[in-house]
Amino acid sequence: MSQDLLIRMVSKGDENGVGKGHVYYTRFNNKNKKDPGKKYETKKFNPIAKKHTVYTQKK
């Protein structure tokens, strides 16, 4: 996996805070973003909370 495109996604947890801090790695090309200051955010399945939660880009 190319290290240039590898980003670390960290979970915010569910409404009760369960699953907060779970890490997920993915590829994302930051060079093509319109606003480079904005962090990438997406919903992924969190196995600790056993539901989909919001993940934000950290690095």
Write the layout of secondary structure elements.
Layout: E1 6-11, E2 23-27, E3 41-46, E4 51-58
What attributes does this structure have?
Rubrerythrin, domain 2, 59 residues, mainly beta, four-stranded antiparallel sheet
Helix/strand class: mainly beta
Tally of helical segments: 0
- Rg for CA atoms: 12 Å
> What share of residues is helical?
under 10%
Please state the second-level CATH architecture. Answer: Single Sheet
**Order of secondary-structure elements:** EEEE
**CATH T-level topology:** Rubrerythrin, domain 2
Say how many strands there are. 4
Q: Largest beta sheet: what is the strand line-up?
A: 2-1-4-3
CATH class: Mainly Beta
Query: What does the largest sheet look like?
Result: 4 strands, antiparallel
Relative strand content? 35-45%
Overall domain count: 1
Give the integer mean of the pLDDT values: 85
**Which residue ranges are poorly predicted, with pLDDT under 50 across at least 5 consecutive positions?**
none
| Cα-to-Cα separation, first versus last residue | 16 Å
Envelope shape? elongated
What does this structure look like?
- There is one protein chain.
- The protein has 59 residues and is mainly β.
- It has a single domain (6-58), classed as Single Sheet (Rubrerythrin, domain 2), CATH 2.20.28.
- It is built from no helices and four strands.
- The protein has strands spanning 6-11, 23-27, 41-46, 51-58.
- A four-stranded antiparallel sheet has the order 2-1-4-3, with no helix packed on it.
- A hairpin with a 4-residue loop joins β3 and β4.
- The radius of gyration is 12 Å and the shape is elongated.
- The two termini are 16 Å apart.
